[in-house]
Amino acid sequence: MQRLWVLISPDKLIIGLAFAALVIAALSEITIPHFVAAMIFSAQKGMTSDFYGNAKLLVLMSCTYGLFSGIRGGCFGIANQILVKRMRELLFSTLLSQDIAFFDAESVGALTSRLGSDCQQVSRIIGNDLNIMFRNGLQGLGAFMYLVTLSWQLALTTLGVCSLMWFLTTIYGRYQKRTSRFAQDLIASANEVAEEAFSLLRVVRTFGTEQQEVGRYSKWLQKLMEINLRQNIAYAFSTLSSCTLYHGTQVVALIIGGGFVMSGQISAEKLTKFILYSEWVVHSTWWVGDHWASLMQAIGASEKVFQLLDLPPSLQLTAPGITLPNVQGCVQFVDISFSYPTRPKVPVLQNVNLTINSGELVAVVGLSGSGKSTLVSLLLRLYEPSSGQVVVDGVPLQDLDIRWFRKQLGVVSQEPRLFSMDIASNIAYGCDGDVDQMEIERAAKLANAHDFIISLPDGYKTMVDNTRLSGGQKQRIAIARALLRDPAILVLDEATSALDAESEHLVQKALDRAMRGDGGRNKRTVLVIAHRLSTIRAADRIVVMTNGQVSETGSHEELLKLDGDYARLTKRQLSTLSQ
Ligand SMILES: Nc1ncnc2c1ncn2[C@@H]1O[C@H](COP(=O)(O)OP(=O)(O)OP(=O)(O)O)[C@@H](O)[C@H]1O
Asked: How far from the centroid of its chain's Cα atoms is residue 467's Cα?
């Protein structure tokens, strides 16, 4: 509750207004039975002026109740919307500030479920549960005090019943809190399966595994249903006990109170008011209990959200770093060893030493799994090396302002992903401020993307749908994106996926231009994970990775002469590519 208060406290005014309206509405509502009873008994006794006096007050209280109930509902509704928005924003930015290793361990489906369903549950606490609990608690207390003034002996019977009701409710509330945590985890797991199936729909369709996916999804739904059924059974028991106690109180009060009336201890009017208000007390206790359980349920659901909100942001993003006036582009991997945090015992890179000089074009080759992409991830500082360091222009990477440094890099990955924005925004993605359309078109021309873009109905304003653009088209947009930054260091992961011959030719031409610096600079440093013989031959130096180590470096001819790993690799793989 304290955590929630911190989140909602910037809107103290609206919350204060909501609670003030709640108190006025609750107090005016609670007087209504009093005036109803008073009107009936003044009519019975023929007291006309009392009758109309009470009628006026009844109308006044009813109008006050209506007006302030509206204000209360509106204010709590607004506070609720603000809370859920703020909580989602905070959670989203906390998640985005985590290390990549965090996302290796968590699934996207589960995280989006935390953002969606869990945050919605939490927002219910303010908008619904607390609001109703507070209103009914206040009314129940007020009504009980009135009962004491009518007959403290009878009030004690009501207190006994309410205490029993509250005791049963707290047991039920604890059960709800525990089970709702599981329920939210199950919703997250089901979302994970759905997200995976949608994003890999082509694979699912190709292998005809739709039913299998429905089965995986249904497995979580079944577990969720079992938990919900258990919650429903517990709710049924809670309702059964509350209903029995609710009517039981009135029967007991009537029997004892009837005896008091017959013995002249209290009047029939007082007993009538007592019955009306005791109903109120029990009813309020019931409502408070019901929403207490619901509050516990929401608190259970909120635990994971708060756990995630407590995650400290990635050190790299918070640590202050330096910027360099001019990036020369000299990159050194100094005695780097590395294991992925999810598999700490499996060494992926071992004592890698490699210097890429400013303006040099270095091609990294090696068998699949030899650690080529990992090398790039370390240069981007997506992970921290287990030992050793990456040094850029003589400055260790961890001393540089990482956001600034990443802006000095142009990266084209093997399977570029585009955002659901228009093509121009995709090309300008990550650039500071407004980017001139001419600049965007110039980058697109260099990337051989301009012609296909202007042939689209909306040209550069065409909204990108990842599924409708071909692999080669996406690749060329990604190259344009990298070129627009005119980066000092360019990192390319050559596409091995089967591009059609025309696309491949266009992509290759674009990459050649990007590497050789037609994009603005005469020369830039290029690190390319190379699969094509033409790229490898054009490189100033070839680095061969074998089992996470640099096994050979040199030019194509030098390495062939060595007759080592590179020569074997070339015989095995590259001969087919050169044909
Ligand atoms: N996020 C990750 N978590 C754990 N292990 C990983 C991760 N990414 C890669 N690996 C493992 O690290 C090793 C090196 O992978 P890497 O992707 O660097 O190889 P690669 O040489 O680029 O391969 P390819 O040419 O097939 O892309 C592999 O054994 C791989 O399974």
From this structure: 24
The CA 322 to ligand 1 mean position distance, Å, reads 30
Rounded mean pLDDT of 145-154?
A: 89
Q: Residue 510: phi, psi to the nearest 5?
A: -65, -45
SS percent in the chain: helix, strand, coil, step 5:
70, 10, 20
Identity of the residue numbered 41: F
Please give the Cα distance from 274 to 465 (Å, whole number). 68
Which two structure tokens, joined as six digits, stand for 529? 């994970």
Atom of ligand 1 nearest to the CA of 101: 1
The CATH number assigned to the domain holding 574 equals 3.40.50.300
C-alpha 242: how far from chain center: 38
Which residues are CB-neighbours of 403 under 8 A, at least 6 positions away?
317
| Pocket of ligand 1 contains residue 350 by CB under 6 Å | no
Q: Which residues of 319-333 are buried (b: 16+ CB within 10 A; e: fewer)?
A: eebeebeebebbbbb
Degrees (nearest 5) of the Cα angle 299, 119, 174? 15
CB 530 within 8 A of CB 494: yes
Query: Do 379 and 331 form a contact (C-beta atoms < 8 A)?
Result: yes
Identify the domain containing residue 462 by its residue range: 331-578
Place of tokens 């344009």: 480
- With the C-alpha atoms ordered 318, 322, 325, 327, is the resulting torsion angle positive or negative? negative
- Read off the pTM: 0.73
Q: Which ligand 1 atom minimizes the distance to the CA of 371?
A: 18
Cα–Cα dist 341/394, whole Å: 27
Per-residue confidence (pLDDT) for residue 392, from 0 to 100:
92
Instruction: Read off the pLDDT of residues 491-506 as tens digits, 9 standing for 90 and up.
Output: 888 765 545 555 566 6
Is the Cβ–Cβ distance between 26 and 66 less than 8 Å? no
* Contact present, 50 and 35 (Cβ < 8 Å): no
Residues in the chain: 579
In a 3-state reduction of DSSP, which class is residue 253? helix
Which of 506, 525, 503 has the alpha carbon at shortest distance from 515?
525
Supply the CATH number for residue 57's domain.
Answer: 1.20.1560.10
Count of structural domains, the chain: 2
CA of 282 to the centre of ligand 1 (A): 64
Q: Which residue(s) pair with 387 in the sheet?
A: 337
The pair of structure tokens assigned to 537 is 């031959």
Residue 533 covered by a domain: yes
ipTM above 0.90, yes or no: yes
Residue 265's pLDDT band (cuts 50, 70, 90): confident
Alpha helices in 360-493 (DSSP H): 372-379, 402-407, 423-427, 437-446, 450-454, 471-484
Shortest-distance atom of ligand 1 to CA 100: 1
Please identify, among 128, 150, 172, the residue that sits at the C-terminal boundary of a domain.
Answer: 150
